[in-house]
Design a protein that fits this description.
Layout lengths: L8 E2 L10 E4 L8 E7 L2 E6 L2 H10 L31 E6 L7 E3 L6 H6 L13 H14 L11 H10 L23 H9 L2
Antiparallel strand pairs: 1-6, 2-3, 2-6, 3-4, 4-5
Helix pairs in contact: 3-4
The protein binds zinc ion.
Length: 200
């Protein structure tokens, strides 16, 4: 595969396949939000209520947070039952794609670490993806059993989606927040990087 810095791949709703890991830059709350497309216009994703994110924002003033630009309370969505600002936004949930995000991108798997360092975090991962049908199966299992407590740095939406795709948690977008200031991630051994990315 050609080495490139461009791992940001926009994708149209109509081109999605069940089992695709997608993310959106603009979601209701945090910077890029991740989920697994499961077909029929539905996405399974892992999230947290507004109050918890407000706490995280206070504790981590350097992490960019997005404002919710919809009305705080809305009628339940006829397609997925989602209520903006309602209590559905806790843990693993299935919503329609419109309530997942607007500008969709396809997450890239099996990139070299070199390509990973050159890419924007939260767009790709060095692990190999499982077949699409297995990814969908895992996402539905977690919809039933949950994915533990949300934590932005150790158990977030990217951890959830990469777990469904590979069986291992990986979040590139918070790696830098998990090491002491001045530590150069690129100089750490891969085993250590994998632990940092997994939230361990
Ligand atoms: Zn909806």
């Amino acid at each position: 595969m050609e080495e490139t810095t461009d791992t940001i791949i926009a994708i149209n709703k109509k081109d999605l396949k069940p089992g695709d890991h997608i993310y959106a830059w603009r979601f209701l709350w945090i910077y890029n939000h991740h989920g697994i497309y499961v077909g029929d216009g539905q996405v399974i994703h892992f999230t947290t209520p507004h109050a918890a994110l407000d706490e995280i924002a206070k504790e981590n003033p350097n992490i960019p947070m997005e404002e919710d630009d919809e009305d705080f309370k809305s009628e339940p969505c006829p397609k997925c039952g989602y209520i903006v600002g309602g209590s559905l936004g806790i843990g693993v949930m299935k919503t329609c794609i419109d309530h997942f995000g607007k500008t969709l991108h396809l997450y890239v798997y099996d990139v070299s670490w070199i390509r990973f360092w050159l890419s924007r975090r939260g767009t790709c991962c060095p692990y190999k993806a499982k077949p699409l049908d297995q990814t969908v199966k895992t996402a539905y299992e977690k919809l039933k059993t949950g994915f533990g407590s949300y934590h932005l740095l150790t158990n977030n939406c990217e951890h959830f989606a990469t777990f469904c795709k590979t069986g291992r948690k990986f979040s590139g977008q918070v790696m830098a927040k998990r090491v002491a200031p001045g530590v150069n991630l690129e100089e750490l051994p891969i085993e250590e990087l994998e632990k940092i990315a997994a939230g361990e």
